[in-house]
Amino acid sequence: MFDDGLVPKSGTPLVVDCSSYTHWYFFSFEEGKIIGSCDAGDAVAGAQWRTRTDWDLAFHRQNIQTNSGVSGVGEGGILKLEQPKFDFDAVTVAPADGYQTDVADSIVYDMSQMVLGEIGYVQAGLAQPVKNWATLHNMMASDWRYEQSVFIVRTAEKQYAKIRLWNFKNEKGESGTISMQYVYPLTHNP
If we measure between CA atoms, which residue out of 85, 86, 101, 88 comes closest to residue 153? Predict the structure, then answer.
């Protein structure tokens, strides 16, 4: 087992306003905060973020990227732990392998013509294991359902964190705000 001597930020909550359909918000576990954003439709800005290794996760609405694969040059990745019963605290060690890197997908970018039945999409990299962590079951009632899973993130610098995503609404009940609990760094098996 690897122990880097760092004290984990145990149970740290993060709330990110991702209500904009047009922006990605980049998060660093090392900094413990959002370190920047860019327009999801801006190919130049997106290309610049893909060359950086100072971010680990990016958020766009309920979509998530890791700094890996088509999303970034980092050593990132993510896996969903299979547990018989959800237990965030029981996870104390990151597995050695099984991490998936981001693949090409599309995201909703423009909802301005939704009443006419037209929705604008842009291409993006997405972390597939967390693709359906929040699903809309009833649009009129804003009824969202959340997957009860522990996800292990391999960061851009090949450190590890565990996360739990549990809400996609703000205190007013409006969708677009991600609530995430995380522990970083997490011990891992080499």
Answer: 101
Largest distance between two CA atoms of the chain: 56
Based on the structure, what is the number of domains in the chain? 1
150 Cβ contact list (under 8 Å, min separation 6): 80, 81, 83, 86, 87, 88, 91, 162, 163, 164
Does any domain span residue 162?
Answer: yes
pTM: predicted TM-score of the whole model, two decimal places: 0.92
In angstroms, rounded to a whole number, what is the distance separating the alpha carbons of residues 106 and 56? 20
Q: Are 119 and 113 in contact (CB under 8 A)?
A: yes
Percent of the chain with pLDDT over 70: 94
Question: CB under 8 Å to 24, separation ≥6 — which residues?
Answer: 37, 38, 40, 46, 49, 58, 59, 60, 65, 124
Domain of 138 in residue numbering reads as: 12-188
What is the mean pLDDT of the segment spanning 123-132?
A: 97
User: The tokens 């984990």 sit on which residue?
Assistant: 8
Interatomic CA distance for residues 13 and 183, integer angstroms: 9
